[in-house]
Amino acid sequence: NAGVTQTPKFRVLKTGQSMTLLCAQDMNHEYMYWYRQDPGMGLRLIHYSVGEGTTAKGEVPDGYNVSRLKKQNFLLGLESAAPSQTSVYFCASTRTGSEISYEQYFGPGTRLTVT
Amino acid sequence: GQNIDQPTEMTATEGAIVQINCTYQTSGFNGLFWYQQHAGEAPTFLSYNVLDGLEEKGRFSSFLSRSKGYSYLLLKELQMKDSASYLCAVLDSNYQLIWGAGTKLIIKP
Fold first, then answer.
1. A47-56: long-range contacts, CB 8 A cutoff, minimum separation 24
2. Which chain A residues contact residue B4 at CB under 8 A?
3. Which residue in chain A has the smallest CA separation from B2?
């Protein structure tokens, strides 16, 4: 099993450009998440999905959109990139059920720089 | 609001013991997780506590006191590879993980 994979691993954008980050998991997990991680701050939830075709806003959703057309994939879009979106983006997934199953499995991250 | 506090950085010596504390104030509580994150890598699961007390797993132990909103991660027989950030996260009433900023642990020979 590959677990959780993310593409691309690195990207540099100019202000105003758009891009899509792809997350894929092969563990048949129901829930998927997109986080950003900035120095000195905890992981902050951008958007999440509790199943195919459903998405919800997290703590910092502005400037991002998501889609979950297939259970195994969760896409994060930046419509018009801004320097404030320079960050490391992590995708994660989890099973459902008992509380311990909310352990999140993370992808390797995408390092995005917006100039 | 929801808040999780951890020390920003700690230093310890190889072979020694270190305790990393975490205090939390969240809307509901469905368990507390500890994750390890090496520089430039993704977080990986270390432990989960939902009942008060100590959970031991090899060189790592995690303690929880729900009445005090307090947890700690205890690392014994420190090795250089334990140099990493340690993240505390609480599963709140909406089954969302609320994350602390992490504690960077530096191990010196």
1. A47/A76, A48/B96, A49/A74, A50/A96
2. 42
3. A59
